[in-house]
Design a protein that fits this description.
The chain has about 650 residues and is of the alpha/beta class. Strand 4 (about 225-230), helix 12 (about 235-245) and strand 5 (about 255-260) form a beta-alpha-beta unit. The protein is globular and about 80 Å long. The relative contact order is 0.11.
Amino acid sequence: MVGEMSPVSEVIHCVDNHVDFVLQGGAGSGKTEALKTVLSHITKKYPDRLAACITHTNLASEEISRRVGGAHHISTIHSFLNGLIKNYTLDIHSVVFQIFRMRFVQEFVINDGDAEHKRYKKAYEKFSDALFSIKGEKIIKCPGKRQFDKDSENHIAEINAQIEEFNGFIKQRIASVPHHRVVYNESPFDRFDNLTFGHDSLLRISCILLKEKPKLLRVLFDRFDYIFIDEYQDTNPDIVDVLIAGVKDRANKVLGLFGDSMQGIYEDGIGDVEKYIVRKDLRKINKPDNFRCSAQVIKFINKFRMDDLTQELALKTIDGVEESANERQGVVKLYYAVCNDRPTAWSETAKKEEYFSKLNKLIDFASRDGEFKTLMLTNKAISKKAGFGGLFDIFNERYSLSINDRIDEALSALQYKDVYSLIKFFEVKRYDDLIQIVKKGGYSIFNLKSKRDLSSKMHDLCSTKRTAEEAVKFAIDNKLIRESESRRRFLQRKEKFMGEVLADEEYQQFKGLYIDGTKSFTGVVGKMPELDEYGYAQLLKKIKIELFYYGFVEVGVSIAETSSYFRYVDEETPFITMHKTKGSGIKDTLVVIEDFFWANSYSFNGLFSKEKFDGFDPDTKKILYVACSRTIRNLSCVRLLSQEEKDNIGFFFDDATEVAL
């Protein structure tokens, strides 16, 4: 701390004196307000200087832009980086191989036992899938551990040689595509079919270019005097590293990070920047204020912090009037039942259902005392309660990873989101916004009759129990929206696939067996002896794709389900995922402390044991801190405890109620 400066004053001191810094502030500490204040300071004191402010959501970018106007460059990390590199198409083309190449055996990191064979097997299976998917070629089944151990060096050398040959094919494919066509596709996913890259690969490519092409760093720092990153903990570590290295030798430039390491819950984020603080690359400025939570909630969430910051009650001033401490009082409660026989991920379905029945009764009991927003760990657990369980199940069956990203992409591509916007604007009487949309769709509004006609069509769209697909067709036919190119491409892919499998006799035989209940490889090969494991895997994949198209588009999810999903994403339902780190405060929250058998991610088992707490998994502590710290007034928690946790529960909760189930 510089003298008795406030944290914001110290940040401004760093800005004025060209000192790189990190402002560390917990939830509700006013970090974003501090960032706005700093940007306003630069605008007034240094009108000829320009700042780049990098955010992680469009919402945050818009919020900051409203406060500081157009004086500075404010954008999301992806928009910022794409704007920086997009004109360097030759350079992008020269490094995009790093995105699509297959990794060699030694590049896979395995942390548990028998690492050498597991690393080999993982590389083998990744290569096998890519080889068949891209070239239609097969290799023999991966050797087992016993066979591998007899000559591991030779096995590794053989598969690496095949991977190297495959990578040569990838290079040729890249060379055949003009450099200006290899671009960012503004989606979460890379596309080998057209050699475009998604969000994560944009970050990787940007890092490579910033490290290997000094001209890009010069362009960046010639344009901007200050680079500020909001929610730094969610930023890719390589991006942070390259910016810190780049700013070191530029005396009049400043890098400033705003965020909270305790809210760093994403695997691809840097989490904390402690090593840069230790090296004195960054000056750390703690901001202990908490303008959001009640005193009781602040006391509770401080138990989960693992750094040197202890949050303190800070009183807001609104319209010149400061709130009193009495206005910031609330309650923290735990509702629990004892369960010493908790099932595992491998337990029988009946045992799991019995367990979740108890949990739901506990949630219902805790919910009876008020109107809560309920925070749960998994989207799957939330989906049925929030009204989009069918939609989630369709995507969960088709995809194993990035399910929400897949849902978002598909709903946008098929224009289900466009229809939701129409309905929402009409229902909340935002008629100007509605008219703007329908005019783009080709709907002519020139007199009172056309407005009445529009109102009639909107009543029809809102009241009829259509599927989402039927609703989009209605909107297009009535010129409320125009059919997008993304929708045409999606439907063309569907029609092409459905036509191909209909004419595929082998697939139709397999599908018949599958429908009749013969689904395992052993069972199927008894009826289709010519089939090998490759063929079986591909046919099974086609089954999943057909079921996806059938359930999602042919039968179709209801407009009610897609609307429920969008309301959930916008936090307009009583249910929220714990992973929503950048969210506004919630008056009263109910946090369900249950991991739902989310393997390899979080486990709350034993958390409320005094002896285990200090050394408990940091990621689990962080996710609970994130969830509970959104509370403004009253926090209620729900947990099925072990006997050991029950004996220690007074250490964590002043108010704990056991519920008989």
